[in-house]
Design a protein that fits this description.
Pfam families: PP-binding (PF00550). It comes from Pendulispora brunnea. The chain is mostly helical. The protein is built from 4 helices and no strands. The longest helix is centred in the C-terminal third of the chain and has 20 residues.
Length: 104
């Protein structure tokens, strides 16, 4: 069973930050965007942009975010999104290792 290493999580974090900065944030919003910027309060994530982010997570990172995990807390900032994705990947890896069908 493979586990997420710290370097995997750093790469994941950087990919999510780059996507949010380059694909979701406006030019003005990019100024000062950090891993701890509150994305909802800053207006960087609204319903449409959150949907785009979730689609990108599914298509590019191969992580399906279950509806119950689509909360403001989990999408508060880049750090929390990274934690969510790492957690969902670990759950998927464990389910596969146990021969169970991953929850959808």
């Amino acid at each position: 069973m493979s586990e997420n290493t710290e370097s995997d999580n750093i790469e994941l974090h950087d990919r999510i930050l780059a996507f949010v900065r380059d694909e979701l944030a406006t030019t003005t919003e990019r100024e000062g965007l950090t891993a701890t910027t509150p994305l909802l309060e800053a207006g960087i994530l609204d319903s449409l942009r959150t949907a785009r982010l979730i689609a990108w997570l599914r298509d590019d990172l191969k992580v399906r975010v279950p509806p119950l995990a689509m909360t403001g807390k989990n999408f508060h900032n880049i750090d929390r999104i990274t934690d969510l994705v790492a957690s969902l990947r670990a759950t998927l890896t464990s389910a596969i290792a146990l021969g169970k069908e991953p929850a959808r």
